[in-house]
Amino acid sequence: MQLxxxxxxxxxxxxxxxxxxxxxxxxxxxxVPGDPALQLLGNHYTPxxxxxxxxxxxLDQSIPAQYWLFLRHSxxxxxxxxxYYHDAVAHEIAVRFPATIFLIAFAGVLTVLIAVPLGTISxxxxxxxxxxxxxxxxxxxYALPGFLIGVLLILLFGVxxxxxxxxxxxxxxxxxxxxxxxxxxxxxxxxxxxxxxxxRATVIEVLGTDYVTTAKLKGLSWFTVxxxxxxxxxLLPLIVxxxxxxxxxxxxxxxIENVFSIPGLGSLLVSSVxxxxxxxxxxxxxxxxxxxxxxxxxxxxxxxxxxxxxxLKAV
Amino acid sequence: MVVASPMVTGRSRxxxxxxxxxxxxxxxxxxxxxxxxxxxxxxxxxxxAPLFTxxxxxxxxxxxxxxxxxxxxxxxxxxxxxxDLLSRILYGGRYDLAIAFxxxxxxMVFGMLVGLFAGHFGRPFGTIAMRFVDLVFAFxxxxxxxAIIAMLGPSLLxxxxxxxxxxxxxxxxxxxxxxxxxxxxxxxxxxxALGFSRLRIIFRHTLPSVLPACLIFAMVDAVGNVLLGASLxxxxxxxxxxxxxxxxxxxxxxxxxxxxxxxxxxxxxxLVLLGVALSLIGDGLxxxxxxxxxx
Lengths: 315, 295
What we know:
By secondary structure, chain A is mainly α.
């Protein structure tokens, strides 16, 4: 019940941002220089046809009226028609979304698998070999563009030692895992640099707390202290860090999908830039904005419900 | 107990990436010096490109395609059109350096000013400005940049415009946070009590505590901008062919990755070196600019 109340409150806080996202996506398409009817009609341009197109798109109405129309259509999932595919944009997004969400989730899991041991060990053995090694890895890893990691992985594990498929999405769960392994690793490397840094700092902080000292003085084994006291308290904040940096992961997906030819939303976005398919770009901007907002909400709620110290009354 | 409100989570996101971890044996002054030396070498190589290579980066030589490195006359070999790879990398670096400094400096100054004024004037101006910052943060950065370029059309200028529009907000947040805490410091309160003008307080008293954080973040941000510029060049929606930009050179080389791998790897190394140089400078600056008592 309290959780429900908190959820309602958070959603209420998000509404202004949600409205803002729709305004930005709405304004975006007005940045296109020239006449949208001309873009749409191309060689078939006649003043009469243009007037009809403008009327159908609602472009002959006032700007606030156009925005209201856009908002009403977006809410019911009508995101316009693609110029290039001659299909509803919403349908195009629905078809391609599974590949993107699968890739994001997979990369997220791999990131945790890399970041948690690395961040914990480098905090426990500050200045030790793992700590220094991780620092060298991340100094270079941060400067390595994702697409270059992708190209290197394709060269190494797709071509020289061909153990992974290097493009496409595959079929079935096992097929997806196989096809998306290299792209997910490519995404996980830069993303884990962000998580290791914050996890390392949290673990160092937790190691200095009284309850860890107490647990040690009780004579509990080092591993028990780590498992029962240090890790639970260090991993909880990581959920929030994960959530707020999700936009970073989503942004990486846009680029990496193109490197590995994955039929997801990122490759749709980039191909729509070259085909000048403005409604698709607009819809994807809106979709990504709302998606990131929604996941942030989920991670916040997850954090609050998992951490017994956070009383929902105080929220 | 504090729970993640949009403001708090947003700030932690900026904090999470204000610095890159640097190995301890090369931290502080060593990082600053080695980073600066590396950056100066890259800058001299790229800006003074005509001094180091006699070839034009775009002149095609159909008789000498795909020469390996150390081929006579071509230190790093040639690409599929016989263009000298060394001169393509050196001339191409000019665009990456321009993105690193041109895009980052403008957003840093603008974002910092917005944060300073928003932190000083509070409601309603400050609140409205910071809500707008939250809004820009709601979009994945790359998606927003690509969307703006898509609408304006792909070109170098539009790439700059997109980066300017999308990335000043980080600085606004950092600078706003610092300004709000500086408002409580004794010397700012004293300056207010003495009746100093707003502008004098902002620029003489608040700016010195805001600038270091923004400068340190600018180095990490510059790395991000260079990588994004190169990624868009790689995807063919940033700087267009035949302009040599590191990302686009890597993309061209990808077709020959099996046999002539150096076509992609060498410009990639250049990109990584520039990123490492900027990260090292950021770490060195953070160490040098931190107040003495908190080291």
